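cache lookup: miss for this entity combination. No prior model stored, computing from scratch. Input as submitted by user K.M.:
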Amino acid sequence: MLAKQPEQSNNAVFLNIPYDDQFRRLYLAYITGLIHLGLDPRATLEIPGGQDRLGKILELIRSCRYSIHDLSRVQLDRTQPATPRFNMPFELGLAVASAQIDSAPHDWFVFETVHRRLAKSLSDLSGTDANIHQGTVSGVMRELCNAFVRQSPRNRASVPEMMRTYHAVSRRAEEILGQSKARSLFEASVFRRLYLAAGKAAGIPESL
Amino acid sequence: MAHSVIITTPMPTLDDIRRRLGLSEADENFVESLFASSPVRKPENLEFNPVSSSSALSGIKRSSAIVRKKTNRARKTT
């Protein structure tokens, strides 16, 4: 039986991306880009370890109005035994099911690096157009702007503005990492600080 | 073409972000200090530098002249 629908946040975007150093630039791009657009990035790295991790991931997805699934990591990882990463397509499956079954609306987006590769890697999604970012930070910003359009033209952001926010946060990322005594940027404490730093860099006002 | 959604929710404030993240005072002070030493330059504060484009252009002209000179010298020696 499906658990009760959790309260949904209309600004929240579930971010389904690989957590590894090769993806670091794009990870920062997604966080800073979404915050610049006035959205609320949510990620599984916020979920503490322990029991029923899968249930908590599903609850997080269902509590988000939107989700982004970056399926660009199709290569085998270098650590033995060499394996592909199945987390991203698996969580995409959870989001698609949530969009189909739940009463609350859920829009999901697939981001990719290479045109038409999705048709080969996940043919069940044939007919779905992916947002192609070409593996670049500016590509991620452009595709975020294409996917999420603010109704009020006053609040629409441009890619150069978003790039400025990205560079402001990226320059400070090492300091945030060092000060947080964390091993990588993909830890909850670092994520929180990056989030606030991106808010400040994007020029979000203190209060209304 | 991939689909788009129209966002109608209001833009958040930093107070909204603080509430959502449940930040500690240490987090807050640390991030504040990051921006105190080198504040972010806002687009309206960016200065237009009229020298940069022309000097870049003259740089291109100069480098193509060097290439021409080297090619001519190579032709003479062969």
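stored under new cache key. Chain A has seven helices and six strands.
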